[in-house]
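Dear colleague,

Thank you for sharing your sequence with our group. We've completed the structure prediction you requested, and as agreed, I am returning the results in plain text so they can be pasted directly into your records. Please verify that the sequence below matches your submission; if there's any discrepancy, let me know and we will rerun it promptly.
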Amino acid sequence: MCIRDRFCASFFVNTDEDHNQIASFYTGAMAHAGKLHFADCAPDADLTIITPNDPGAMRAYVAECKAIGLPYIYDPSQQTLRVTGEELCEGLDGCMLLSLNEYEFSLVKEKTGLSEAEILDRAGGLVMTMGASGSRLVVGGQELWIPPVPPRVLAEPTGAGDAYRAGLLRGMQLGAPWAVAGRMGALAAAYVLEQFGPQNHSFTRAEFVARYREHFDDEGVLDALLVAPEYIPSPLPVAP
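Please find the predicted structure tokens below.
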């Protein structure tokens, strides 16, 4: 869909010396996102992630996923402050995973009035990033702490959360255990922390696997990236 009379949506962020951030958005063409439908744009999808977008579109995507039985990860992220508690409850109720950072999770609890246990009764699992402290995965009745990968140089954090989710999702595609998938997310985030800007980093599959193995044991799972780099296995489910 082409919106000719609107500029692209834009994100602006101010980062202080401690890497705390204040973000603002220009909506632009994103205001039309609710006109997009999975049935038209991704009819063969096995899994989707609902990330910050026009709030009306996010709510519509949740409803459509539930209607067509499409598993989804709910990641309200920067929109957590803007959407209502009712909308947050709709999104997390029945999601495969609820994904956000520690501050955003505190907002979800405050706005919905739900405890962590009550949230986990509704959501299939929880992915919570905690900056330099690493991240938490609560899935399948178990809780995993994922340690951070120390960046070689700390530039600034914009985009690190998105990179974490990208690494996690790639691990899910590989059918990796949660512990491995989470550590893939941690490593992907480290690459972003080392560069100014959200998408200025790069690495080959071989470089990614080698660096992963400097810190963690993948038990051979990542061999799939080396021997068949174009092969993308089924994204569901992740092994316990």
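Summary note from our side: The chain has nine helices and eight strands.

Kind regards,
the structure core
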